[in-house]
Amino acid sequence: MRTHLAEPVAAALAAGRPVVALESTIIAHGLPRPRNLQAARAFEAQLTELGVTPATIALLDGEIRIGLCDEQLIRVAGDDDVVKVSVRDLPVALATHSSGATTVAATAYLTARAGIRVFATGGLGGVHRLASQTFDESADLPTLALTPITVVSAGVKSILDIAATLERMETLGITVLGYGTRSFPGFWVTDSGYELDWSVPDAATVAQVMAARDELGLTGAVVVANPLAAEQQLDPALHDAALSRALTAAEEQGLRGKEVSPYLLASMVEQTGGRSLEVNLDIATNNVRVAGEIARAWAALAP
Ligand code: PSU
Ligand code: MN
C-alpha cells in the first residue's frame, strides 16, 4: 500500500475522534525557511492542545503520508527535492518515487480519500489576474468542486482576481461560508470588499452544513472563509503598494505554471519588509484553530 496513515491518525479516525489535515505546500513553498518548520510544528501543537489529531499531508519517496512525524516534517520543510505536487502530479510522483508537498487541491483529494473531513490552509488558489489571457486558474477550484471536504482559509490571496474566483466558485458548486462575517476576506487584509451570500456564527453550524451536504449527496467542498481580526491585518495601504510591485516583478519575470504563486508570495514578503510573512503566519494559526473547532463539532455530531 502506498498510503500510510500515521498511527495517531488511524487511531483517531477509527474511534471517531476529531482530525484536521494540514496542507504542506504552504510549508515547503509558501513560507521561507526556517520559519516554515517552526510554523509546521506550531500548527500541529495547536491542534493537539485542542484535543484534535493533526495530519499533515505530503508525499515522501513515492508514498502518501497522512500524518507526519517530526523527522518527516523536517524533510518537507528543508529538503530541496520536495517538489510542489498538485492533483495531476500525484500519479507521477508515486510512480517515480518522488517527494512532494501537496497543494490545496492535492491535499483535499488525499484528505477526503483517507476519510478526513476538515482541513486548514492559509489561502486558496484561484483565478489569477489576466487569466482571460493566460488561462491561469488554480487546480484548487475544480478539485474542490468534486471533493467532499471542508477547508478553512482566509479567502483567496489578493494576488488573484478575487471577483473572478468567487464567480468560478459559484459556477463550480462550491459552498462558501463567511465565518462570523458576510465580507469575503482578502487573505492579508480582513475584507476583500466582496460580499458573501452566507455567514455562519460558529463551528457547530458548519458541522450542520456538512451533514446537510452529505444528506443531499453533493460532490463539492465547503469553503469556510475565516478573516483575520482587523488589528492583525496587513496595513491596507502597505498591502496595495507591495502587491502592485510584486505583480509587476512577476510579470517582468515571465513566470508560468506552478512557479507563479510561490514567486508572488515570496515577493510580497520582500516588498513588505517581512511584514506579510508575520501576517501569513497569523492567518494560518487562525485557520488551524477554526478547523480544530469544526472537526470537534463534526465529531460531536456523528453517531
Ligand atoms: N496558501 C498559503 N500559502 C501557499 C498556498 C496557499 O497561505 O503557499 C499554496 C497552496 O498550496 C495552494 C497553492 O494550493 O498555493 C496554489 O498554487 P497554484 O496557484 O499554482 O495552483
Ligand atoms: Mn496556476
Low-confidence stretches: none
Under CATH, the topology of the largest domain is which? Answer: Indigoidine synthase fold
Q: How many separate structural domains?
A: 2
Which small-molecule ligands are present, each listed once? pseudouridine-5'-monophosphate, manganese (II) ion
Radius of gyration: 18 Å
Q: State the separation between the terminal residues, measured CA to CA.
A: 30 Å
Question: How many beta strands in the DSSP annotation?
Answer: 13
Roughly how much helix do the residues carry, as a percent range?
A: 40-55%
Q: What's the mean pLDDT score?
A: 96
What is the name of the CATH architecture of the largest domain? 3-Layer(aba) Sandwich
Element-by-element helix/strand order = EHEHHEEHEHEHEHHEHEEEEHEHHH
> Superfamily at the CATH H level of the largest domain?
Indigoidine synthase domain
Treating each run of at least 4 consecutive H or I residues as one helix, how many helices?
13
Q: Sheet with the most strands?
A: 11 strands, mixed
User: Strand content of the residues, in percent?
Assistant: 15-25%
> What's the level 1 CATH class of the largest domain?
Alpha Beta
The coarse silhouette is: globular
Structural category is: alpha/beta
